Amino acid sequence: MNNQIQLDPEKIIATVDRLEKRISDRFPDSGLRKVCNEFLLIAKKTKQNITWISKPNIPLRLLSYALILIGVGGLVFSITYVDLEIKNTTLVNIATITEAIFNDIILLGAGIFFLVTMESRVKRKRTLTALNELRVIAHVIDMHQLTKDPNLVSTVGGSTENSPQRSLTTFEVQRYLDYCSEASALIAKVAALYSQILPVEGVVRSVNEIEVLTTGLSRKIWQKIMILNELDNKKL
Q1: What's the Rg (C-alpha) of the chain?
Q2: pTM for the full model?
Q3: Predicted confidence band at 1 (pLDDT cuts at 50, 70, 90)?
Q4: Domain boundaries in the chain?
């Protein structure tokens, strides 16, 4: 019986869905709501992906086994054919035939390795593509929090024609930044689902990179939240 603790895709999706609803309630027309809605779709797609990854790809395996049998059968047939045709048993002739058979065995071995690992490579490629989508979402969330400068909350003077609109109150900026932090943390959790189901080197490394990215993003966000709290305390 396997008692290993694992991340539950359903609970992660439910948490992302709840976050999207919270953002929609407070910032219905914001770009962050649209990004979180897209993130929710990706999270649901992730559940489908890990279900697909966890199951054997029967058609691909049958194709691989058929090609392996054909290759082995062809090699056996060629060896049998060569043996029947040998009439000149000089050392040079035997060495030439042995080298040809050895080369065929090497090529067949390489082909078998390619076919046997094909399923794993297909799954790894799909996983890395999905992880790249999560990485992009993290960068988009970072773009949304960039203009939320705690020192310029609800300022009227000092703006220029191309300055970003700052109409949010201190409390709203805090909530906005908090939502960004939660979303980036959930991105790391969704990414971890892939390393949980496919713990190979390339996937684990990519998941760790996303974890580092989202952790750095959350750290920047919480620095802004702390500045906002300090400004509030000075006003009291």
Answers
A1: 29
A2: 0.76
A3: very low
A4: 9-53+127-235, 58-116
